[in-house]
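Collaborator request log, item 7. Partner lab (contact: R.S.) asked for a structural prediction of SET domain-containing protein to inform their binding assays.
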Amino acid sequence: LLYHSEITETSEATKLLVEKLNLGPNLKAVDLERLLQIWILNCFEHSDEPLGYSTYFMSSFMSHSCYPNAVWHYTGADHVLRARRDINIGDEVCISYLPESGLLQSAPVRRMELHDTKRFWCTCERCGTGLEDLSRGFCCPVCQEGIVFAKTPNAGPAKDGSLLSQQIIGAKCSGCGHVVAKAEATKLSTNEQKLQKMVDNLTKRIEGPPSKQPDAKELQTVESFIDSNFHQHVLMDLAWQQLADAYAAKRRSADHRRLLERRCKFHADAYPGLSGAHAWALEALGDAMRGINGASEPTAPEDKKKRVWQVAAKEDPKASHQLYTEALKILRLMFGDDHEYVTDVERKQA
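Returned to partner:
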């Protein structure tokens, strides 16, 4: 009854399990392989430490949507399902097989992730062919003010999750109405690839040793490139996440807050419904509004001759309280009043 792909061969790991556990007399390796596939494709994450998964019979029959009308969480050992948007009589109840941050990804990346982990190609209302991908927006190459959104990919299998220039050809600017030509799409796609490399480089360096940390000038260069070429793009958000962390480490509180504000706006604009990722970004901004003070460290501590200081942003308890309130409104609807996501924010707001 539960979904699983056709199994004709067994993996070496399954054969080893049957052999070492002496299951051979009662269980064929191919049957264990089928059982494991059913588990893998229909289980839910249960715990991080230790890493654990669980299967719930009715819950495992629910389909995925990148615009789900329900969300699940645990209360003890119970699997709790809550509505995250209006559900009419006759509507199929769908959950997301992706994490909350995954729902903000571009359609090609979402579809590839679902195929890699659950073995299907998504055709939900956000992944249908030729729709505007609200997580993949560019500055219009003509007016620079409007947004050009790439189109969602064609239905069916994809080679990989690459963001293709073909998906930008024919896109229409929201401002001036310009239709993107092939050469323009190629240039936009090239900038997209460049930004992906910037994000990867930032992530690697920020997680690395202090000697590899980017300085303020490098961070500002990345921001300038983003502002000149992108508008409502998930790679912007991923870059801002790294930039915000870097500014926080340098105690540049005003820049840290500014990047968190930009992340919150992207989350609100890119996803049409309740979003846990948006709520947690609001919570992070609330933390920044109340918790960072004092002058920053030099933006380039390795350069003793040039010390650039930034005046720290003042605490703003009122703004922090409002941000926590906005986050709680989302989190209560999604997870209920007693969930730790809610109570953690309530303690901060008290």
